[in-house]
Amino acid sequence: MKTALYTIIFSFLIACSGFSNKKESSKVTPLEIPQNTKVAYFASGCFWCVEAIFESVAGVEEAVSGYAGGFTKNPTYQTIGTGKTGHAETVAVYYNPEKVSFQTLVDVFFGSHDPTTVNGQHPDYGTQYRSIAFYGDTVEKQIIESTISNLNTEVYDGKIATEVTKMGVFYKAEEYHQDFEKRNPYNGYVRNVSIPRLNRFKKKFPNILKEK
Fold this sequence. Notes:
- With about 210 residues, the chain is α+β, with helices and mostly antiparallel strands.
- The chain has one domain (about 40-205): Peptide Methionine Sulfoxide Reductase, Chain A (2-Layer Sandwich).
- It has helices at about 1-15, 45-55, 75-80, 100-110, 140-155, 180-185, 190-205, and strands spanning about 40-45, 60-70, 90-95, 120, 125, 130-135, 165, 170.
- The strands form 2 sheets. A 6-stranded mixed beta sheet has the order 7-6-1-3-2-8, covered by helices on one side. A two-stranded antiparallel ribbon has the order 4-5.
- The protein is globular and about 35 Å long.
- The N and C termini lie far apart (about 45 Å).
């Protein structure tokens, strides 16, 4: 009985949802797109992990954690945690199209998480952690769908659960979430989940990483 209790407590402590900040703002304003860059949006579990992964890719200028894909206006970390806002933890990836293509970013997305998992990435589960590839136009939609088709045939035996969704409003997450992994290297979740996930990605995609 005690072992089961300790497992539950440990799982909570290293879960993305186990962190909160009482200074959390009640409103989050939509993010404006900077000039001279393009932006792509992806959701694949805890945004602390996803942000760090994309920021390691050459050609990516910035990655910002936020919320998208839902129907609730001005979501917050607490409200999306209820699973009732429709939003998923999402990362806006600002990139230089002369240095990295949208196709490469899609490859990074599918190559850095398990797209066959419905509503979650271990150890985080719930609709707010579901896998979504957002598109802004028909070209991006075709790239995503073609990639899914190829992966379903060659790797995942038709089991990909990723949603392909037209991008609506992106809400930037609270400031304490931005660069969370970088600023909190000794956090339990970061040490046990985020950093190992980042390292697995780097080992898989060594040729597209930024130079140290």
